[in-house]
């Protein structure tokens, strides 16, 4: 068991697999990798991970397995080609299960990252049997890193959706909010998809204004995280709010408030008296709050000091 | 004419349109915006911009125009709803023309940004008349910010592909490279798509190793830019190279070399004796080089000083 108390990285970060781009596009090299006795299949149950004894389950490829039905995730640090099986019909259960989230605390970080990549790609293939250009049937190409249309020849590539997730800061406090569907007490950083035609910084400013009525400037990037539900790139930022008035978009946000460093510190520590329940350390929001504390905390009255 | 000598932003950055998310999802508000006498159509010629007298051409909507065939880009600073027309068949000419790039020097920055957003979205619609899940016909939804399948009901959203574009730095020099297809002498920062399952920093490290054999650490984010050919989010970074040995992937990179601050300064100034020809200021690579100079330059021997 890899406890959250020692975790240094958000979930799905820290992959060590070599993605071997030169093999993906070379059918002879791909065929060799597939018949390599060291090759392994990363077992998935639908989109869920399969874990045993603190590791993801890797199996030898079946004798009748066909390379065309597989995705080459890469070559691992033990020099083993690692494949995942592409499934035409995953059924309707494409939303993240508790099991798919819990894996972040059950296996080492590099295996969490491997599962994340596999999940995003297997999901993408299952959603793209047809060509968006002509409606024809598509088939996997480039070792599972593309699909090609058999009718019009269009190539399609796995998508990765950039999402901004951010804190607005105002006079030593940061803004946290909650969605209607979240567990009671849970608050986190606000977030939203980056749209065509805007920068990361412009997306941060737009989302904070849309969701909370807060205008920010001096947006700075903090860190990023791949998030495989289904395939986001979380881009964590902090911006300076012009004032602390809130106008919430109630369709998106149920509630939001400004929290000081003491409150954030208590929330990250899991203190039951904290002003909110923080997301778990697998979420980049936990690390964004932690990073804010590391920078903003020391300039404030320390936790426990008399006010 | 807005000359490059006064440009502070990369092309397509600095949009001022209000994207009015609350109108997109409200058919009554959308219908009102469409019949607003102030509403305007952003004229496009296929995917090319149409410019006159230093501005993009905006026209009143035709009397027989249908809201279903239009994308609401947003409300401009003059309180005008701005639409673009969705075109089912753009023909085969979807690659960027010289005209589509030249617009960055012909109209104000906020209009360049508006064109970029319109181009990415109109292109995306033209490539998605069919549902990737079931092959059924799709139709625009949410004021052109989604498509919905008439057969299986799947919703599809415009894609934005995160791309890392980066400099490796080693002892006061940075790495620039060129692709086979570029004009003679042109070098720039290396770049590549962020893949599912990796962070921005991991993508930077992977691409620099794949393309140039360079290992980097301490990757830091510098700035971002939307790039509408067809719909990328350019994420510009600098990383510290472990050494300066190069192993080029000749399929991707024709040549690459380490350039010092004097050379970069000469290239950005357009000096004909510079060691390379830099990309134009509409490209984020120009700004990345400029930002590197601003930080790295002063610590080195100034240009013109005797060695």
From TrEMBL, chains A, B:
Gene that this polypeptide is encoded by: nudC
Catalytic function, reaction form: a 5'-end NAD(+)-phospho-ribonucleoside in mRNA + H2O = a 5'-end phospho-adenosine-phospho-ribonucleoside in mRNA + beta-nicotinamide D-ribonucleotide + 2 H(+)
Keywords, sorted A to Z: Hydrolase, Magnesium, Metal-binding, NAD
PROSITE patterns named in the record: NUDIX, NUDIX_BOX
Obligatory cofactor(s): Mg(2+); Zn(2+)
The protein's name: NAD(+) diphosphatase
Organism of derivation: Sphingobium rhizovicinum
TM region positions: none
EC number: 3.6.1.22
Similarity section: Belongs to the Nudix hydrolase family. NudC subfamily.
SUPFAM superfamilies named in the record: Nudix (SSF55811)
NCBIfam families cross-referenced by the UniProt entry: PRK00241.1
Coiled-coil region(s): none
GO MF annotation list: hydrolase activity
Record bears the keyword Methyltransferase: no
Residue span(s) of domain Nudix hydrolase: 158-284
């Amino acid at each position: 068991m890899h406890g959250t108390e020692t975790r240094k990285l958000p979930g799905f970060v820290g992959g060590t697999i070599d993605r071997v781009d030169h093999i993906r596009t070379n059918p002879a090299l791909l065929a060799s990798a597939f018949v390599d006795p060291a090759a392994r299949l990363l077992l998935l149950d639908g989109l869920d991970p399969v874990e045993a004894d603190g590791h993801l389950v890797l199996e030898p490829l079946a004798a009748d397995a066909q390379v065309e039905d597989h995705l080459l995730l890469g070559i691992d640090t033990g020099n083993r080609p690692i494949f995942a099986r592409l499934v035409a019909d995953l059924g309707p259960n494409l939303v993240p299960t508790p099991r798919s989230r819990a894996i972040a605390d059950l296996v080492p970080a590099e295996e969490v990252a491997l599962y994340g990549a596999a999940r995003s790609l297997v999901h993408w293939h299952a959603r793209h049997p047809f060509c968006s250009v002509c409606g024809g049937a598509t088939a996997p190409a480039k070792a599972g890193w593309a699909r090609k249309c058999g009718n019009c020849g269009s190539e399609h590539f796995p998508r990765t959706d950039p999402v901004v997730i951010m804190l607005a800061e105002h006079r030593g406090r940061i803004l946290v909010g909650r969605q209607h569907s979240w567990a009671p007490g849970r608050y986190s950083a606000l977030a939203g998809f980056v749209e065509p035609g805007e920068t990361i910084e412009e997306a941060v400013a737009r989302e904070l204004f849309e969701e909370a009525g807060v205008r920010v400037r001096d947006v700075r990037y903090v860190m990023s995280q791949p998030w495989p539900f289904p395939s986001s790139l979380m881009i964590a930022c902090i911006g300076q709010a012009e004032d602390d008035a809130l106008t919430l978009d109630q369709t998106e946000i149920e509630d939001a408030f400004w929290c000081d460093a003491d409150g954030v510190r208590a929330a990250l520590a899991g203190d039951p008296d904290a002003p909110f329940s923080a997301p778990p350390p697998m979420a980049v929001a936990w690390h964004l709050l932690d990073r804010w504390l590391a920078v903003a905390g020391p300039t404030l009255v320390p936790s426990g000091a008399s006010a």
